[in-house]
Amino acid sequence: MYVIRDSPEPLSFSVRRADRRDAASIRNLAVASKIDAWTIGQYGDEVDRDDAIVLVATESLSMVGFIAGRVVPSTSEGNDAEIYNIAVDARSRGKGIGRKLLENAIDHLVSVGCRSVWLEVRESNQKAVQFYENNGFSRITIRRAFYSEPTEDAIVMRLTLVAVDSTNKTGSA
Questions:
Q1: For the segment 99-135, what is each residue's pLDDT rounded down to a tens digit?
Q2: In whole angstroms, what is the distance from residue 79 CA to residue 127 CA?
Q3: Helix, strand, coil share (%) of the chain residues, nearest 5
């Protein structure tokens, strides 16, 4: 079950769970954003997985952003998750779309018992690094030559999730 977080401010876009019909648009946005895009079939298969979280942001019926990740079985204390891709159309950046996609993905991951979220980001992509740090992620390590075309190191980042007690709205680990 996906829970889409309400927003106190009016938004010009909406966030929803992706379905197989979104796969081509997700692929096109990934390619336009110059991220390591999967095939249309791979995106379609991903949205059908029970352990996947794939959300899209739409504005005036056009897809303007997406996030794709997956729950990764970990220990008896809970699962972890990994964010694979996040992209926002260049013309739609600066509207909070990436933040809202990430927030809603995190809400879902908390609801299914994940303890932390991991991701890799190109070392040269300082805007993305700053975005993740602004959203609570910490730098953990470097993976040397992780990316190709061009070869580049990846910064591995992690966000430790805190479950919210709905009775008193305080966090607990």
A1: 999 999 999 999 998 999 999 999 999 999 999 999 9
A2: 28
A3: 30, 40, 30
Structure tokens at 103: 């927030």
Q: Are 68 and 54 in contact (CB under 8 A)?
A: yes
Q: What CA–CA distance (Å, rounded) separates 160 from 150?
A: 30
Q: Which of 43, 62, 27, 159 is nearest to 103 (CA)?
A: 159
- Which CATH number describes the domain made up of 14-172? 3.40.630.30
Is residue 24 within 8 Å of residue 37, measured between CB atoms?
no
35-47 per-position pLDDT tens digit: 877 999 999 999 9
Q: Which residue ranges make up each domain of the chain?
A: 14-172
Which candidate, 61, 60, 66, 70, places its Cα nearest to that of 29?
66
